[in-house]
Design goal:
Elements (H helix, E strand, L loop, with lengths): L7 E4 L17 H16 L3 E6 L10 H15 L5 E5 L9 H6 L3 H15 L5 E5 L16 H9 L5 E4 L11 H11 L4 E4 L29 E4 L9 H28 L2 H10 L11 E2 L63 H10 L8 H15 L15 H29 L4 H28 L23 E4 L10 H6 L4 E6 L2 E9 L2 H19 L24 H6 L2 E7 L6 H17 L4 E6 L4 H9 L3 E2 L11 E6 L1
Parallel strand pairs: 1-2, 2-3, 3-4, 4-5, 5-6, 6-7, 7-8, 12-13
Antiparallel strand pairs: 9-10, 10-11, 11-12, 13-15, 14-15
Length: 655
C-alpha cells in the first residue's frame, strides 16, 4: 500500500469474533499485542489504521449498559494507538426491541444517536466512519432521494462523521458522478465509497483478478474517500491493489492539473505549496484505497484504504509450502499401467510467464465482466452448440453442407486447442515457484481445468452425437497434486471389464475416470431397470449365448455385468421410488475419496437430468469402506429382511 500511494487500512474481519459477534468483549493481552503491532506497522508506513466495530446485530440502542461496553471496547483500541474508527450497521434487521421503540422515533435515529455519542466520546477524531443499514441504492426505500432513513442520517449525523456507500448496488459495476451527487445531497456530505468490486466472499467458486475499473478518476472530487474490499485470498489482490493505486494517482494528477491552471491565473507559487501538502489535509476528499487483509478500509479525506470486509486477514505465507506436491506410483489393478514415459509428474519450479498470467486473469476477471479469453471461449462454445446440427448424425440433411461442416470442425479445433492450453495452466500453477499463489488460487485453477476438460469432451461429443450433454463440475481433491484426473464418457476403446450388458445397452450412462496412466475407475448406471431387464432378456443374453455357446457365460474375459436381468428380482415398491441402478468401480490405489465422489456425482447428475427420481445399488455387507462412502453421499439402506432377495445390502438415494 505504501509503495503504490495508498493511505488507509480498515480492520474489520468477521473471523475476529470480537469485531462483530462478541463485540462487547475486550481483547486479551495477547490479542492486544497483536493488534497494537498492526496499528504501529500501519502508522510507520504512513497509513491510517481504521478500527471497525459491528455491534448492530444485537445492540440495544437505548441501553446505557451496552453503550458503556461499546465505549470500553473502543477506549481499549484507542489506548493501543489507534486514532481512526468505524461503526458499522450493515446487513442487520431493521426491527427494534420494545425498549428502543419507546426511546427512539426510528431505526435511523437510534443508530445516529449512538454514533454521535461515540464520536464525541472519542474526542471527535478526524477519521470516523458510519456504515448505514441502507448502504446502496438498491437497499433504499423507496429511493435514494426519498429514503426516510437516509434523510435522517444526513440531517442528524454530526458533520465530522463520514458515511459509507457502495454505489447503486452492493457490488456496483460502475460509479457515476450523477449518482454520487444525489447521495451527497441526501447525506449532506460527500460519501465514502466502500467498493465491493473485488470482494468474493459471497461465492466460493469465483475470484476476481482483474483491474480496478468502471470508476473514472474524476469521481474523486465527489468522494470523501474510497475503500476497496478485496478478494479473500491475499495473493489474488496484486492487480486490484496496484491498479487502485494508479487510479488514485491519476485522480490526484487531474486535480493538481486543474489547480495549476487556476494558479497561473492567480499565483503559481502558492499552488505548488498547497499541492505538496494537500495529502495531509483531512478535509480533502479524493482518496481511494484498498484493503488487503481485513475489511475495506476507508478514507476520510485522503486517507489510505485497504481491508477485506468481514473476512479473515489472509497472509501470503502459509504452512506446508511444498506439501501438496506428491507423485504416486500406481499398481496395475487388472490391466497394464505403465509410467508416463519422458514426462516428470512434478517439473522444476519456475514463475508463471506473462502469457499465463494474462490468461488466468482473463478467465477470472471481474464480477460483471469476463476477460478476453473467457469471452472468446463462451462465444465459441455458444456457436458450436447452436450449430452442432451440421455435424450431427441426424442433422436433417444439413450435414450435406460441406462449408458449414468445415467451418464447424475448424472452429471446434481452435476451441479444443484453447481448452488444452487452459488445462495446462493447472500444471504451471502447481509447479510454480510462488507457493503462496498456488495455495491461494489452487481451488480456482482446479475448477477451471475441470471445466475445460468437460467443455472439451462436450464439443468432441457434439461432433459425433445429436443431443446435448450435461456439464459437470468437480471439486478439487483433498490436497493439491500434480496427478491429473479426467472424468469423461465411456468410449469403445476403453478396456473396462465386467460391464458388458450396461455398455451394450446404455453406454450413455457409463463414465470413466482416467489419469496419465490410463483408466483407473468407472461408474455405470441404468436409467430404467425394468426396461433394461426386458432388453437384456430379449437381445443381449441370446446374443451372448450364441457367441459363447460352449463356455460358461462370462468366461474368457467376457464376463457379463452383475446386474440382474429379471425385473422380478427387485420389488415394485423399490423400483417405483428408485427406478435407476448404479455401480462404481475404482482401483485400490485410488485413495482420494473426493475423486470417486466426483465420478459418482457425474453419473447421478446424468441420471437426474434424464428423468430419474431415485437410484439404488448393491453393496456387500462386509465392504465397510464402500458403505461409509455411499452413506456420506446420502445413500441409505432401503430394503430389509424378507423384502431383500439378495445377500447384498440395497442402498438408495432420491435425486
Amino acid at each position: 500500500m505504501q509503495r503504490w500511494g495508498l493511505n488507509t487500512y480498515l480492520y474489520g474481519p468477521k473471523d475476529d469474533l470480537k469485531h462483530r459477534l462478541l463485540w462487547r468483549e475486550v481483547y486479551s493481552a495477547d490479542e492486544e499485542a497483536q493488534l497494537k503491532a498492526l496499528v504501529c506497522e500501519a502508522e510507520s508506513r504512513g497509513l491510517s489504521f481504521v478500527y471497525a466495530l459491528s455491534p448492530g446485530q444485537d445492540i440495544v440502542f437505548s441501553s446505557s449498559s451496552d453503550l458503556t461496553l461499546l465505549k470500553r471496547k473502543l477506549r481499549q483500541v484507542a489506548e493501543l494507538g489507534c486514532q481512526a474508527f468505524a461503526i458499522l450497521f450493515d446487513d442487520i434487521d431493521h426491527s427494534m426491541c420494545q425498549a428502543d421503540t419507546e426511546a427512539f422515533s426510528s431505526f435511523a435515529h437510534a443508530q445516529v444517536s449512538v454514533a454521535n455519542e461515540i464520536f464525541r466520546f472519542l474526542g471527535e477524531p478526524p477519521v470516523f466512519l458510519f456504515c448505514p443499514t441502507e448502504y446502496c441504492g438498491s437497499l433504499c426505500s423507496p429511493s435514494v432521494s426519498k429514503s426516510p432513513y437516509l434523510l435522517t442520517v444526513g440531517e442528524d449525523l454530526l458533520p465530522g462523521i463520514s458515511v459509507i456507500w457502495t454505489g447503486s448496488k452492493v457490488i456496483s459495476r460502475e460509479l457515476s458522478a450523477d449518482s454520487l451527487v444525489e447521495v451527497q445531497s441526501v447525506l449532506q456530505r460527500p460519501p465514502l465509497v466502500w467498493d465491493n468490486l473485488h470482494a468474493n466472499d459471497y461465492d466460493s467458486r469465483r475470484v476476481f483478478l482483474g483491474p480496478f475499473k468502471g470508476r473514472p478518476p474524476g469521481l474523486q472530487a465527489n468522494l470523501r474517500g474510497l475503500l476497496l474490499n478485496p478478494n479473500c485470498e491475499f495473493e489474488a489482490n496484486y492487480i486490484p491493489l496496484h491498479t487502485l493505486g494508479s487510479w488514485h494517482k491519476a485522480g490526484k494528477e487531474e486535480r493538481e492539473g486543474e489547480r495549476s491552471e487556476e494558479g497561473r491565473q492567480i499565483r503559481p507559487t502558492e499552488h505548488r505549496s498547497s499541492a505538496h501538502s494537500s495529502k495531509h489535509k483531512p478535509s480533502e476528499s479524493s482518496d481511494n484505497q484498498y484493503g488487503a487483509h481485513s475489511r475495506p478500509s476507508c478514507t476520510a479525506g485522503p486517507l489510505p484504504a485497504c481491508s477485506s470486509q468481514h473476512r479473515k486477514p489472509t497472509a501470503a505465507g502459509r504452512e506446508g509450502g511444498a506439501g501438496p506436491l506428491r507423485s504416486e506410483e500406481r499398481a496395475n489393478g487388472g490391466h497394464s499401467r505403465e509410467k508416463v514415459q519422458g514426462k516428470a509428474l512434478c517439473a522444476g519450479k519456475g514463475p508463471l510467464n506473462e502469457v499465463q498470467v494474462r490468461l488466468l486473469v482473463g478467465l477470472y476477471y471481474l464480477p460483471h465482466e469476463h476477460g478476453p479469453p473467457a469471452q472468446s471461449l463462451l462465444q465459441d462454445l455458444t456457436w458450436l452448440k447452436a450449430n452442432c446440427n451440421f455435424v450431427s448424425a441426424n442433422g436433417n440433411g444439413k450435414k450435406t453442407q460441406p462449408q458449414k461442416v468445415e467451418e464447424w470442425r475448424a472452429r471446434a479445433g481452435r476451441f479444443l486447442a484453447a481448452c488444452d492450453e487452459i488445462a495446462a495452466l493447472h500444471g504451471s500453477v502447481v509447479n510454480s515457484v510462488n507457493r503462496a499463489v498456488l495455495y491461494d488460487l489452487y481451488p480456482y485453477v482446479w475448477d477451471l481445468r475441470n471445466t475445460m476438460l468437460v467443455a472439451k469432451a462436450f464439443i468432441s461429443w457434439l461432433g459425433e452425437r445429436k443431443r446435448d450433454s450435461e456439464l459437470f463440475s468437480h471439486p478439487p481433491p483433498l490436497f493439491p497434486t500434480s496427478r491429473l484426473y479426467n472424468i469423461r464418457p465411456f468410449q469403445h476403446k476403453d478396456k473396462v471389464r465386467c460391464l458388458g450388458a450396461s455398455l451394450a445397452l446404455c453406454p450413455e450412462y457409463s463414465f470413466v475416470l482416467e489419469d496419465e496412466l490410463g483408466v483407473c475407475g468407472c461408474a455405470v448406471g441404468i436409467l430404467d431397470v425394468r426396461s433394461f431387464a426386458k432388453r437384456c432378456q430379449a437381445t443381449w443374453l441370446p446374443a451372448m449365448r450364441d457367441k459363447y455357446p460352449t463356455r460358461p457365460h462370462g468366461a474368457n474375459g467376457h464376463a457379463a455385468t452383475k446386474v440382474r436381468v429379471s425385473e422380478q428380482d427387485y420389488p415394485d415398491s423399490l423400483l417405483y421410488h428408485f427406478p435407476s441402478q448404479l455401480r462404481l468401480e475404482a482401483l485400490p490405489e485410488l485413495v482420494d475419496c473426493s475423486i470417486s465422489r466426483s465420478l459418482l456425482t457425474s453419473l447421478l447428475t446424468a441420471l437426474k437430468a434424464n428423468g430419474s427420481q431415485g437410484v439404488f445399488c448393491e453393496v456387500h455387507p462386509t465392504d465397510r469402506l464402500r458403505l461409509e462412502f455411499l452413506t456420506k453421499l446420502g445413500f441409505l439402506e432401503i430394503l430389509r429382511g424378507e423384502a431383500r432377495s439378495t445377500e447384498g445390502l440395497i442402498l438408495g438415494r432420491l435425486l
